[in-house]
Request: fold
Amino acid sequence: MLAGPGTGKTTTLVEAAVDRIERDGLSPEQVLLLTFGRRAAAELRDRIAARLGRTIREPLARTFHSYAFGLLRQDAALRDRPAPRLLSGPEQDLLIRDLLRGDVEEFGARSWPQRLRAALLTRGFAEELRDLLLRAAERGVDPAKLRQLGRQYQRDDWVAAARFARQYAAVTALRPEAPAYDPAELVRAAVDLLRGDPALLERERRARAVVFVDEYQDTDPAQEELLQLLAGGGQDLVVVGDPDQSIYAFRGADVDGIRRFTERFRRADGSEAETVALTRSRRAGAVLLEASRRIARRLPGPSAHRRLEPDPRVPEGEVDVHLLHSAHQEAAFVAQRLRAAHLVDGIPWSRMAVLVRAASAIPLLRRTLTAAGVPATVRREELPLVDQPAVRPLLTLLEIATGRRALDTEVVLDLLVSPYGGADPLALRRLRQELRRHELATGGGRSSSVLLVEAIDDPGALLPLDPVAAAPAQRIATLLEAARKAVAAPNATAETVLWAMWSASGVAERWAETAVRGGPGAAAADRDLDAVTALFDTVARFVDRLPAAGPAVFLDHLLGQEIPGDTLAPRAPEGETVAILTAHAAKGLEWDVVAVVGVQEGVWPDLRPRGSLLGSETLVDVVAGRGPNPLATVSHVLAEERRLFYVAVTRARRRLLVTAVSNEEEQPSRFLDELLPWTGPGDERPLTRVPRGLDLAGVVAELRSVVCAPDLPPDHPRRLAAAHHLARLAAAGVRGADPDQWYALPPLSDDRPLREPGEPVRVSPSKVEAFIRCPLRWLLQSCGGTAGDLFHQSLGNLVHGLAYDVATGALAVDDLLDAFEQRWSRLDAGRGWSAAKQYDRAREVVSKLAAWLRANPHELVAAEADFEVEVGRARLVGRVDRLERDSEGRLVVVDLKTGRSKPGSSELPQHPQLGAYQLAVERGGFRRMARKATSGGAVLVQLGGDTKKPSVQRQPPLADADDPAWAERLVAQAAEGMAGQEFVAIENHWCGVCPVRRSCPLHAEGGQVTP
Ligand code: SF4
Reply:
């Protein structure tokens, strides 16, 4: 039976099985259904039991593996031998890596070709080798045959792998507790058993009056052979499948199995079996079907089964293809479309899905969808156990406790933001600040990164800190302490250590409550609990099998696991969320709305050769009689990728959205035009702009912009409609909808001046400058509106500290760079390229400081000297970096600047900050240090710009100015203004970097404050 997507294949299969039982009077035990994946088998079984209205004693639906396993176990029981065991993928990897390690350590890897020896101990090599062994076993290629093929095709790696395969088979078969099989060997072993025991074969054939096989396109040659034995030669056998949905070649499936079925399984009279095609699409309507037919037409092989008719009762459906400029925009666009489908069309979240080619694309999508208000869950089976967010931190702590991994800043940060640490970026910052504060208070100077590591390592360091800020670190430190204690206990196993950590974490109850309560966190809590349950399941099984193996061996076993294990653990209900999953995992499922995302050339199709190191694909081709032909291999891979895309686009019941990124680096896939050729204007599909998000803030902003649109007449219907909707939102309490909350509209809360008349005003030279430049910016920054460039501030402090040490004689100019190197590590500049850049910049600033100090001819009077003088209403206070005496005995204030920007030369004569310094000198602010107080000018030493040398900017002495009183007037004017009641925005050339621009009425970003 050839059954395209959505043609009712499973229902037909269930009905056929029920029919045999109800109409032909077979007992359920005489009906055998074989399929792929334990979950599919369980679902088939449940559906048949429900249809029959009774429970069934024997599982009539099974996987090939479970059937083969049953035969082997039965045989072992009859012969009084221990029951065989199935090797899981990760266990197999572990075994292969062990044997390879033995090869390298004992024999210097001499049996392997020279070019491969260096790679032997890598995980990648073990995986390639496992792949080759599986493909060989599925295709009946034993070690002798593999060696012969290696010689024939001049592949010395196959010859070496053949020797290894013999060793591997001996080890698995000779295990003391029981023979262990990998999945491919299991089916092969069952075939051998049936062949070697004609009585058993006859019994099995007679026991099954009819055999059904679902998803037949996924069979490999070993499974086909097993089926030949069981139901070949004219037995009653029905196989169902769709060659166009064969997407598991990488697991050994061979699409030829279904294409050649009628030749290979003939009737008792030798004629070919009948083929029936299901041709009515019950899932996709006309439009969706037409699009998927365009892909289907390009697939290889006979095409009769591809002519599907839409069911007239099913709506036509929609197909959309969009190109976006970046992956972020793509994710935002998908989020917007899903929200629209939910909010406008009322489609429940659980009837939507986002499909990707590779799991690596999932994190960005999940983050963007969640941030845009689309509840999304990643199917647990998409991530191997070790990568589950609730499992990874426990394994990391286990690694640290067993000494396999060092505790460093990155590890600590990962642990702190994990579900066990529970810190968000704000909490992390608070913790770092608290650690630094305490360090400085106790006279230390270490960076917060160093302190973080210490605090986790030794929780005593957390005791003096604010308990709220320290809480995330405390939680992780407690887990590590518990793990270390458990590791040190006699007979420690991975299970005892993990259990000690889990008990100490105390999260079980919190997660369980969240899961039961529902809401956005429920799905995540469910998923986390499931993952931890699976971890304990795995560790319990591991400890049962290898009771003497310590925690380190378990870590090896589990950390090698990169493939999600097939699990029957009940899946957490995903609730009302959008599923994000790979196209492979989506097979057999369907949703109303499906978004297929990231369809890029190079990603989908991904034409990189598979199994290229040891040539497992070539082996498959050779055994299938295709010969090693690189071109044929590429076309094979392309066909498989197209089938995968076909599977993805045929999951949609009503609406299909396919997206890709198009920019200088990434091109959309050829599959997009195959699905929906571009017929609009121009040669190419244009880029789509991401519309405004359909969240409440976005809607309120949109409505407000219509209500306030300057070009609409007051009674324009659009304006009235927007006002009506805003009123509804305001009544519902939505933030920002009520005009009372619009910054520009409320009356002034207080119009009194900031200071009482005559009250003195404290001003500093830098504040004078800031106020004169823009009073509004000064006001908002004084009230906390700062950008807070912590690194820049720290660099300034470091340079000023070095200059001070030179001035006081504590440091020689020649030692400046050495001292800088020592102090740099305390700056917390982070890691990576940006930290390296900052380091280079800081070093250059210090080099320029040294150059300037060496060349400076003036006598130093004081460094970091404070002053305070009165200038009318102003109390002018501050501190100068250096106070120097020039050749004429006058005082010169020097200000060291580490920033990049500097004033233009035309601004210098009346530069407010320098003028204020000079005024402080003239008014006797430094009388303590120099009795004669005449200003000889003021200097800015620019150390931070792009020039190689320091640049020195001088302001002439006040006395030499045309108007010597300008500085006094300026300071007095600033003090008056600062005490006043109105603060004007003055546009200037620093507006581009102004941190309060979003509150400035002169700029579009600040439009919200403009009436
Ligand atoms: S953007 Fe310019 S004008 Fe506006 S507050 Fe900032 S500095 Fe002043």
